[in-house]
From TrEMBL:
Organism: Methylohalomonas lacus
Residue spans crossing the bilayer: none
Cited SUPFAM superfamilies: Thioredoxin-like (SSF52833)
Protein name according to UniProt: Peroxiredoxin
Highest rank taxon of the organism: Bacteria
Domain Thioredoxin: 9-161
Pfam families: AhpC-TSA
Gene Ontology terms, MF aspect: antioxidant activity; oxidoreductase activity
InterPro entries reported in the protein's UniProt record: AhpC/TSA, PRX-like1, Thioredoxin-like_sf, Thioredoxin_domain
Amino acid sequence: MSLTETPVCEFGQPAPEFSLKGVDEKEWTLTDCAGERGTLVMFICNHCPYVKAIIDRLVRDTRELRNLGAGAVAIMPNDSDNYPEDSFANMQRFAREHDFHFPYLIDQTQEVARAYGAVCTPDFFGYNADLGLQYRGRLDASKTEPAPGDARRELFEAMKQVAETGQGPADQIPSMGCSIKWR
């Protein structure tokens, strides 16, 4: 496990388009996943302790964001040949176990992760309705263990602000997690 932090948000940077296979066997594009008032693109995986520590909160927050018009999609960028816990079959199991209501996609070529500039899991990219980047921070204060129950919901608050105003917060704390397992 190599700890990595995300870089500072480049406000307004456009979201790269993609077409990737989901755990439901369907091909998904950015347009399919976009919300009317914002879109959250998340790079996650099954084996990372940082992802495991936040996954239930992440599912809760994306459910609530959907009610505010913000869509969400999770993309698994890791080399699953060398990290079999991140295999497609295990992605399907992980999505079922955690009741994902958003598409969970595999980036087998890692081209999408590179296009976004993703560096770790989890890595969050929050876009406004025009698909301009507004958030590149963390979910909350969790690390490899969940943060206390009363921890500030940073990603949720930021995406709520994006959905309501089109702008993300000026101050953002980088996400941290395991480095992406590049081929």
